[in-house]
Write a structure and sequence with these properties.
With 290 residues, this protein is α/β, with parallel strands linked by helices. The protein contains 13 helices and 11 strands. It has a domain at 3-137: Rossmann fold (3-Layer(aba) Sandwich), CATH 3.40.50. Helix content is 44%, strand content 15%. Helix 3 (82-96) links the parallel strand 4 and strand 5 (100-105). The N and C termini lie far apart (47 Å). The structure holds NADP nicotinamide-adenine-dinucleotide phosphate. NADP nicotinamide-adenine-dinucleotide phosphate (NAP) binds at residues 7, 9-13, 34, 38, 53-55, 73-77, 85, 104, 137, 139-140, 143.
Length: 290
């Protein structure tokens, strides 16, 4: 049985592939990549490559086999028709009759525009009739820590998330959950929906305090309105469309749509999830003077 991972050269996919290679012989792992060049390092290690593009359904027609377990990692371009992109993968997996189709979705409570493509994709997965697993990933903590250079430069965390809390976990935690589902007991994970969250939800004020404590100076959290945050993002040069997605995601946090914690992720990992302060410490390593 092969484990097939789309988006294999992305940040999450790279971690999933590494996790699979720790558990399985190399030739049972298939990385779906957009070009052989992008997958060259994996191929050099013996990982099988399948070159395909979500935008080109024909490129997906020979990728899957009947006994494959597949992880469809959601597409990353919010300006593209992501449902059509995901449909191309789901149709190809359905034609092949794969053994399991897992999909990286978004929290069920999310109402922002980001959630719409995920909800519609979940509908396609269910309609396929394939055994499926929905991995509803809460936010990666790295979504916040990747902005730390700017936050440290400005000396303030200015966002539109109000007092909302985020039940985030590390990207590596979600990757390990994907590995656990692909390599685990098929009967246990088939036709299950997991709400994957960190064990502890935190507020942006707590996050800013954590950054400040580690940076050795106060980093206050300034709660902006949606319009105020939009203005600051567009003013910093972000296209309106991208700014609206970021500000909309903050509104979801403010509404509490990302605050619910569940035991699903720590149960799949058989360990606690990675706490926010741990990811902050890792991200600050190298950003702060030694
Ligand atoms: N929960 C969260 O906090 C969160 C945050 C950000 C994103 N996400 C979602 O989770 C997904 C995985 O996260 P990530 O951090 O790994 O994102 P990422 O690093 O941007 O990776 C996205 C992957 O999708 C591939 N891809 C994009 N368009 C494609 C296409 N047309 N055909 C084939 N492959 C395509 C990319 O290929 P290339 O390597 O060739 O570019 C890349 O491998 C994202 O795509 C997004 O849907 C979730």
């Amino acid at each position: 049985m092969r484990m097939v991972v789309t988006g294999a050269t992305g940040s999450l996919g790279t971690l999933v592939i590494e996790g699979l290679l720790e558990r399985l012989p190399t030739d049972r792992v298939v990385a779906v990549v957009r070009s052989r060049e992008k997958g060259a390092a994996l191929a050099a290690r013996g990982v099988r490559l399948a070159v395909a593009d979500y935008n080109v359904p024909d490129s997906l027609s020979a990728v899957f086999r009947p006994d494959d377990r597949v992880l469809l990692i959601s597409a990353n371009d919010p300006t593209a028709d992501r449902v059509a992109q995901h449909r191309a993968v789901i149709d190809a997996a359905t034609d092949a009759g794969v053994a399991l189709l897992a999909y990286t979705s978004a929290p069920g409570a999310l109402t922002s525009r980001l959630a719409d493509a995920h909800r519609r994709t979940e509908g396609l997965v269910l309609a396929s009739g394939l055994p499926y697993t929905l991995l509803r990933n809460n936010w990666y903590t790295e979504v916040f820590t990747e902005q730390l250079p700017l936050v440290l430069h400005l000396g303030v965390l200015a966002r539109a998330a109000g007092d909302g809390r985020v039940a985030s976990a590390s990207r590596a935690d979600y990757a390990a959950a994907g590995v656990a589902v692909l390599t685990g007991d098929a009967a246990e994970h088939a036709n299950r929906t997991y709400e994957l969250t960190g064990d502890t939800a935190w507020s942006l004020a707590e996050y800013a305090a954590e950054v400040g404590a580690r940076a050795g100076r106060a980093i206050p959290y300034r709660a902006l309105s949606y319009d105020g945050y939009m203005a600051s993002l567009v003013g910093a040069g972000l296209p309106e469309e991208a700014a609206a997605l970021l500000a909309g995601a903050d509104v979801s946090i403010a509404r509490g749509e990302l605050s619910r914690t569940t035991p699903d992720l720590s149960t799949l990992l058989a360990r606690p999830t990675t706490p926010m302060p741990h990811t902050v410490a890792r991200a600050l390593h190298g950003l702060l003077p030694a």
